[in-house]
Design goal:
By secondary structure, the chain is an alpha/beta fold. The chain has helices at 15-27, 38-43, 64-73, 89-97, 110-123; strands at 7-11, 31-35, 52-56, 80-84, 102-105. The chain has one domain (7-123): Response regulator (Rossmann fold). Helix content is 42%, strand content 19%. The longest helix has 14 residues, at 110-123.
């Protein structure tokens, strides 16, 4: 029986970005589970623990920061990486205050984002 690939959860409301992130992560030998909203994730979380979660900050009704707060209040220790297309110092400070593993501009910092995911996966071995 083949071992399962490490899982990354992606929560992103931009369908094109969601698909692109999934393709790139799968090419780097990660399994992915994708959700278009925080609510969708909360209704049907994956059946196994992920290496990390990639959360878009601006998701719609519930933001990525709000979802992270909800998960932490439920005792989750899964590393969360915030992503945004609209870098904002307020959001960056809030993500740091919440203890996020990283904060990245989706467009400019994509290589650094994938390096962090690989290091999170390596630290869990």
């Amino acid at each position: 029986m083949a071992a399962l690939q490490p899982l990354v959860v992606i929560i992103e409301d931009d369908v094109a970005m969601l698909k692109a992130l999934g393709r790139v992560l799968r090419a780097q030998r990660f399994d992915t589970v994708s959700y278009a909203s925080a609510e969708e994730f909360l209704e049907a979380p994956p059946g196994r623990a992920p290496v990390c979660m990639l959360l878009d900050i601006q998701l719609g009704r519930m933001s990525g920061l709000e979802l992270h707060g909800t998960l932490k209040s439920r005792g989750s220790q899964v590393p969360v990486i915030m992503m945004t297309a609209f870098d904002d110092e307020h959001y960056r400070r809030e993500a740091q205050a919440q203890g996020c593993a990283g904060y990245f501009n989706k467009v400019q910092d994509i290589d650094a984002l994938f390096e962090l995911i690989a290091s999170l996966q390596a630290s869990q071995k």
